[in-house]
Amino acid sequence: MLLSKDKWKETAWHKAAEKSQVEILGILWDWAKKLQLKPEEFRNELLSTDKYRKSTWQKAVERGQVAVLEKLWDWAKELQLKPEELRNEVLLKDEYKETAWHKAAERDQVKILEILWDSAKGLQLTPEELRNEMLLSKDKYKEMAWHKAAGRGQVEILE
């Protein structure tokens, strides 16, 4: 049950993250521990993507779910996931080639941008990767996060 995916390739983790169900995520986490899932099964659950190439992390960012995002990072630390395994959560592009950075900028999610930035630095991304894969990354429509923030009037993001 915990490892199954629906027709959109979403797990229960995706659904709970998208709806900001921190309590449900906690229950899923506890069940996974009780079932003694192997570390790689845990990892696969937390890092899996859906049909649209969106991870649990991206679902949380899209909805502005700071508490969910923080909980996911806490569990990643507890599972001792390696920086190279978590890089995708910061740099992963969905079907529109948008990163979590794009989504947070478009939705005026300053706190989430701060979490993503701090996480990216902790993942030992090079300055070039930070610049090219976050700050200047373009989506399918050739828009950067700056375009998205400006187009939606997100003044605080641009500052």
Write down the secondary-structure element order: HHHHHHHHHHH
The CATH class turns out to be Mainly Alpha
On the 0 to 100 scale, the average pLDDT is 87
Judging by the overall fold, what is the CATH architecture? Alpha Horseshoe
Strand content: under 5%
What's the CATH superfamily, by name? Ankyrin repeat-containing domain
Number of domains: 1
Envelope shape: globular
Helicity range:
55-70%
Structural summary, described in words:
With 159 residues, this protein is mainly α. The chain has a single domain, classed as Ankyrin repeat-containing domain (Serine Threonine Protein Phosphatase 5, Tetratricopeptide repeat), CATH 1.25.40. Helices cover 62% and strands 0% of the residues. It has helices spanning 12-18, 22-34, 39-47, 56-62, 66-78, 83-91, 100-106, 110-122, 127-135, 145-151, 155-158. Helix 4 (56-62) packs antiparallel against helix 5 (66-78). The longest helix is centred in the first third of the chain and has 13 residues, at 22-34. The chain is globular. The protein starts with 11 loop residues before the first helix and ends with a helix.
